[in-house]
Design brief:
The structure holds two protein chains of two kinds. By secondary structure, chain A is mainly β. Chain A is 0% helix and 49% strand. Chain A has no helices and twelve strands. In chain A, strands 2, 5, 6, 10, 11 and 12 form a six-stranded mixed sheet that branches. A four-stranded antiparallel sheet of chain A has the order 3-9-8-7, with no helix packed on it. In chain A, strands 1-4 form a two-stranded antiparallel ribbon. The radius of gyration of chain A is 14 Å and the shape is globular. Chain B is mainly β. Chain B is 0% helix and 53% strand. Chain B contains no helices and eleven strands. The chains are: A mainly beta, B mainly beta. The interface between A and B is medium-sized, with 27 and 30 residues.
Chain lengths: 119, 114
């Protein structure tokens, strides 16, 4: 089974509107973390936002917020007031387990969502 | 600012060649990682290292090896390159003991095997 599922291969949004990128995850661990990265066409991976499984508040970073619904195992990225520069591939990723285990150093990535912001 | 530097942005090699991809980080991170990225598949972990001379296999280690002789440098080796190893390769690094800290990535190497 996929550990990270991003069901939207491509999304379009009008400039200045908000957009939600979906991410669901599958883990039996109680301790885990969820990350979102942005990859512009130039190729570099840019870290956007992090949500820990024990965090009570949804994470926010500027125009980015994470809609974390633990019971549903979803961690959707919300981008408010979209800008043309937001056009990129977006990846959701998960770190599982406590840091004492080797597996906790790894991230598992979803297949990504290509976001296009329209002028 | 964290800097992860990959030795080449673009590389073209021939089938059967031995290929070295180099990665250097300047933040004293314990962990280093090599991924490959293919359309529709996201990033897949090839190998990672959590200390000098230590390495662990990721999800797709076949056809690859790695070397970590110094903390700041992590090399990916294609022993005998094949066309199915044409891909984008991304190196990343992170601290071991800070769960909320992200992995920091290099700019990637687009490798073509002819």
């Amino acid at each position: 089974a996929q550990k990270i599922t991003q069901t939207q291969p491509g999304m379009f949004v009008q400039e200045k509107e908000a957009v939600t990128l979906d991410c669901t995850y599958d883990t039996s661990d109680q301790s885990y973390g969820l990350f979102w990265y942005k990859q512009p066409s130039s190729g570099e991976m840019i870290f956007l936002i992090y949500q820990g499984s024990y965090d009570e508040q949804n994470a926010t970073e500027g125009r980015y917020s994470l809609n974390f619904q633990k019971a549903r195992k979803s961690a959707n990225l919300v981008i408010s007031a979209s800008q043309l520069g937001d056009s990129a591939m977006y990846f959701c990723a998960m770190r599982e387990g406590p840091l004492s285990s080797g597996s906790a150093r790894q991230l598992t990535f979803g297949s990504g969502t290509q976001l296009t912001v329209l002028p | 600012d964290v800097k992860v530097t990959q030795s080449s942005r673009y590389l073209v090699k021939r089938t059967g060649e031995k290929v070295f991809l180099e990665c250097v980080q300047d933040m004293d991170h314990e962990n280093m990682f090599w991924y490959r990225q293919d359309p529709g598949l996201g990033l897949r972990l090839i190998y990672f290292s959590y200390d000098v001379k230590m390495k662990e296999k990721g999800d797709i280690p076949e056809g690859y090896s790695v070397s970590r002789e110094k903390k700041e440098r992590f090399s990916l080796i294609l022993e005998s390159a094949s066309t199915n190893q044409t891909s984008m390769y991304l190196c990343a690094s992170s601290f071991s003991d800070r769960s909320q800290q992200p992995q920091h990535f290099g700019d990637g190497t687009r490798l073509s095997i002819l």
